[in-house]
Design goal:
alpha+beta; 5-stranded mixed sheet; Reverse transcriptase domain-containing protein; RT_dom
C-alpha cells in the first residue's frame, strides 16, 4: 500500500470528522553504518524467518571491507563489523525488519521506510495531538537508546494539518534541549509543503 496515500486518506477522514492531525517525521542517524548484524539476525529469527534466509543475510553482512576514495587518492581497505552495503536494494527491507519491533508498537499511527519513521496523531485540537505525540517521540527516543538506534535531532519535523486557516501551531518540547517547531497546512494554502 502507498503510505502517502494511506496517510492522506486518514487526514481526509479526520477533516470529515472535524478533527486535526499532527505528523512527526524522524530520521535514523547513520542507519547504513549503524545496523548491528547480529541484532538484525536475532530479530529476524524472533519474527519467524526461515533459517536458510537467515544464513543468506548473515553471509551478505559479514566479511565486508571498505575503502575511501577522495579524487585520485584511496585509503587502505578496512574491515567493518556493522552496517550494510550502501546502495543495496536489500537495505530498506532489512532496516524495516530491524525496526519492526518499534513500528509494531502502534501500527495504526506509525510507519516507516528505510531509515525514516513517521508517526501521527488525530485529535480534537492540535494541542491534544502535541501532548500525545510528544510522549510518542520520547518513547521512540528511549527505545532507540536501549537498542542503539540514534535519531537525527536536526531532521525531526512536525506538521499540523487543520481546517482552520490561522490556527495556533503548538511546538513539541521533547526535552530541555530538543523542541520541534511545526509547520501548518490548511486546505487552500498556497504555500502548502509537499507531502
Amino acid at each position: 500500500m502507498d503510505l502517502v496515500s494511506a496517510f492522506v486518506h486518514d487526514v481526509e477522514c479526520a477533516f470529515a470528522r472535524k478533527r486535526e492531525v499532527t505528523l512527526v517525521t524522524m530520521d535514523v542517524q547513520g542507519a547504513f553504518d549503524a545496523l548491528l548484524p547480529r541484532r538484525l539476525l536475532k530479530r529476524m529469527q524472533d519474527q519467524g524467518w526461515p533459517v536458510p534466509l537467515l544464513k543468506m543475510i548473515r553471509s551478505f553482512l559479514q566479511e565486508r571491507k571498505v575503502m575511501v576514495r577522495l579524487e585520485d587518492a584511496y585509503t587502505d581497505e578496512s574491515r567493518v563489523q556493522c552496517g550494510t552495503p550502501q546502495g543495496s536494494p536489500l537495505f530498506p527491507v532489512l532496516y524495516m525488519l530491524y525496526l519492526a519491533e518499534l513500528l509494531n508498537q502502534d501500527q495504526a499511527l506509525r510507519f516507516g521506510y528505510a531509515d525514516d519513521i513517521a508517526l501521527y496523531r488525530i485529535g480534537n485540537t492540535l494541542e491534544e495531538n502535541v501532548t500525545a505525540i510528544t510522549q510518542d517521540v520520547r518513547r521512540i527516543e528511549a527505545w532507540g537508546l536501549a537498542n542503539k538506534v540514534a535519531f537525527a535531532p536536526e531532521k525531526l519535523e512536525m506538521m499540523h494539518f487543520t481546517r482552520r486557516r490561522h490556527a495556533h501551531a503548538p511546538e513539541a518540547v521533547i526535552s530541555p534541549t530538543l523542541t520541534i517547531q511545526p509547520t501548518t497546512s490548511a486546505p487552500g494554502d498556497t504555500k502548502q509543503p509537499a507531502l
